[in-house]
């Protein structure tokens, strides 16, 4: 049940990102649900491989290159899905950062971890 709630919260966060960040557009809530799922899968499957391949540059930039990787994944999902559009890489980087913050805030507000323990 908690996984379903987190998925819906991530879709809501994606709709908020589309509202606040220019050059990011989401067609409707169903598209946001699919996009949140695909972003989550990309973060689970593709991001670790990219982090390993770019480890030297990530170390040289003191970890800031992770923002570029997150932006690339966000931008890639935006170009791959119909109805979810990320027009530039820079808006993808900003969108990924704002998406992370909104997802975290919504999870902190809605999900009560103390009750589960």
Would you write up a description of this structure?
The structure is a single chain. The protein is mostly helical and 117 residues long. It has one domain. Helices cover 78% and strands 5% of the residues. Strands 1-2 form a two-stranded antiparallel ribbon. Helix 1 crosses helix 2 and helix 2 packs across helix 5. The longest helix is centred in the C-terminal third of the chain and has 22 residues. The mean pLDDT is 92.
Brief summary:
78% of the residues lie in helices and 5% in strands.
Protein traits:
two-stranded antiparallel ribbon; mainly alpha
User: If you average the pLDDT, what whole number results?
Assistant: 92
Global geometry: globular
Percent of residues in helical segments? over 70%
Give the strand order, joined by hyphens, for the main sheet.
1-2
Low-confidence stretches: none
- Cα radius of gyration in angstroms: 15 Å
The helix tally amounts to 7
Query: In this structure, how is the largest beta sheet organized?
Result: 2 strands, antiparallel
Quote the distance from N terminus to C terminus.
Answer: 16 Å
User: H/E order of the elements?
Assistant: HEHHHHEHH
Structural class: mainly alpha
């Amino acid at each position: 049940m908690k996984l379903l709630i987190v998925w819906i919260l991530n879709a809501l966060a994606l709709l908020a990102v589309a509202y606040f960040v220019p050059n990011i557009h989401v067609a409707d809530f169903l598209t946001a649900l699919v996009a949140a799922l695909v972003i989550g899968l990309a973060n689970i499957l593709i991001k670790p491989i990219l982090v390993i391949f770019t480890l030297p540059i990530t170390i040289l930039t003191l970890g800031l290159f992770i923002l570029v990787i997150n932006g690339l994944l966000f931008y890639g999902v935006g170009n791959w899905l119909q109805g979810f559009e990320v027009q530039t890489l820079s808006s993808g980087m900003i969108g990924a950062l704002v998406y992370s913050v909104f997802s975290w805030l919504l999870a902190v507000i809605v999900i009560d971890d103390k009750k589960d323990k």
